Give the backbone structure.
Amino acid sequence: MNQYAMVIDLDRCVGCHACALACRAEWNIPVPYHRNWVRELGPDKTPEGLSFTFFPGLCNHCDHPVCVDVCPADPVEKEFRDPKTGKSMKMTVKATFKDPFSGIVLIDKERCLGCGACVEACPYGARYLNENLDDPKADKCTFCVERLEHGEVPACVKSCIVDARIFGNLSDKNSEVYRLVHKKGAKRLTSKEVDIGPNVYYIGKKKDLYLLSERCTPHERTWEEVRAPGRRDLLLAALKHVRSNV
């Protein structure tokens, strides 16, 4: 299986927020929600010296996405197709799923119940429930999959004025992301408690990576605290969905 991934270079990032603004404009993300973000870290002391850096974050499209596990939607069979090779395969998936040909975690908005279980489960806080809609739906970064299908890069990558975001197929040994991860040691934000294989990596000075890791690595297994929606909750969500489409 292919796995698309992103490497973010903290040495290049200037905290201009162009990536977050481009994402908001591309996908019409309402305030106060976001698919990706840039947060200031520091200045603060680290064992490597004084650090001031940024935390550009987004959905990690994890190897083992817990958001998929907690989704209560009834599984259905779905056919997937590799746009490059034309190869297809069928899988039984819930309303949120991991594409077998790209490794991208996606949400079927037609089948999303709007229960928010996946939002609560994500230890990275990368999902939100868009309650601005008449029929609330979960949303998050999709690596701009629609743009990828047309040979474009994600909007945040294209808009970065300093080329701090490197995007590509981590399964391709000739790709830049493969080189940065496997030969330059790009880091994931993982801990002993939370190690679900995020596919967003970071490179930069040791002091900045230290501060990023200390401040932004999750340690709580939030998915284990998610209350599965009861039958009444699901029926009410389904009824609301039917009414909104009448």
Q: What stands out?
A: The longest strand covers residues 36-46. The chain has a mean pLDDT of 94. Residues 170 and 235 are 41 Å apart (CA to CA).
